[in-house]
From TrEMBL:
Family: Belongs to the peptidase M24A family. Methionine aminopeptidase type 1 subfamily.
Binding site for a divalent metal cation 1: 94, 105, 232
SUPFAM superfamilies associated with the record: Creatinase/aminopeptidase
Limits of the Peptidase M24 domain: 12-239
Species in which this protein is naturally found: Candidatus Enterococcus avicola
Entry EC no(s): 3.4.11.18
UniProt-listed InterPro entries: Creatinase/aminopeptidase-like, Pept_M24, Pept_M24_MAP, Pept_M24A_MAP1
Pfam families: Peptidase_M24
GO CC, one annotated term: cytosol
Name of the protein: Methionine aminopeptidase
Keywords per UniProt: Aminopeptidase, Hydrolase, Metal-binding, Protease
Length: 254
């Protein structure tokens, strides 16, 4: 069942999203060579809790951490751990914030220290793919329009679009209907309505879209060992167009 959110609910979700966005803005300064992804976990959890919110991933379907910290060929659901980050690591930090019962969800990618041309291009294409998807999140469009915009652009750039993990509805719970794939056929699928709140969160790989699972039951890796990148926003669909709930302002956009 898809729940439509009222203006009031969307405002509360935007407050949750603004807090989440401020965590990512802080992470831009925090992430540097020599720290570990466990340092990121502690920083994020303290920041969220000291601002009166709940780190909503903790305890979600048995997940133990405030963040997913997925490094290089890890696609998603990497566990934060005491591994030292070094120049040229690509880390995706994903989190959910619950503020006053409203949940927001946003993943952002960071390069540690000195980047490479390969990483710069993958990050730029992944971010642009996200915003091309968001442009399609309009009343009257269909779910397939979002996936098609992302897939056609990313594949034209020579990259693979992950199939196994998709965007989703969000509200008082992290994962709600509808499913929002990052691949698809324009004009197909559910019609988007005012009041739907969804995430768009493309995972884009330098090589194949195929993945393998870690025995830990959570972490997925690219099958070919290539790099994977991800950006995610929570978005409300309104008659005035897509409303970014987790926007980081000018600097965060493409
Ligand atoms: N933030 C993730 C998403 O984008 C949720 C991961 S599930 C968790 O959907 F258990 F790891 F939290
Ligand atoms: Co999500």
């Amino acid at each position: 069942m898809i729940t439509l959110k009222s203006k009031r609910e969307i405002e509360t979700m935007a407050e949750s999203g603004a807090l989440l966005a401020s965590v990512h803005k802080e992470l831009r300064k925090f992430i540097k060579p020599g720290i570990t992804s466990w340092d990121i976990e502690v920083f994020v959890r303290d920041y969220i809790e000291s601002h009166g919110a709940i780190a909503a991933q903790i305890g979600y379907e048995g997940y133990k951490y405030a963040t997913c910290c997925s490094i290089n060929d890890e696609i998603c659901h990497g566990f934060p751990r005491k591994k030292v980050l070094k120049d040229g690591d690509l880390i995706k930090v994903d989190m959910c914030v619950n503020l006053n019962g409203a949940i927001s969800d946003s993943c952002w990618a960071y390069v540690v220290g000195k980047s490479t041309d390969e990483i710069d291009r993958l990050m730029a294409v992944t971010k642009k793919a996200l915003y091309l998807g968001i442009e399609q999140a309009q009343v009257g469009n269909r779910i397939g329009d979002i996936g098609h915009a992302i897939q056609s652009y990313a594949e034209q750039e020579g990259y693979g679009v992950v199939r196994d993990f998709i965007g989703h509805g969000i509200g008082p719970t992290i994962h709600e209907s509808p499913a929002v794939p990052h691949y698809g056929v324009a004009g197909k699928g559910l019609r988007l309505k005012e009041g739907m709140v969804i995430t768009i969160e493309p995972m884009i790989n330098t090589g194949t879209w195929k993945m393998k699972m870690d025995p830990n039951g959570w972490t997925s890796y690219t099958l070919d060992g290539g790099l994977s990148c991800q950006y995610e926003h929570s978005i409300a669909i309104t008659n005035e167009g897509p409303l970014l709930l987790t926007s980081q302002g000018e600097e965060g956009t493409y």
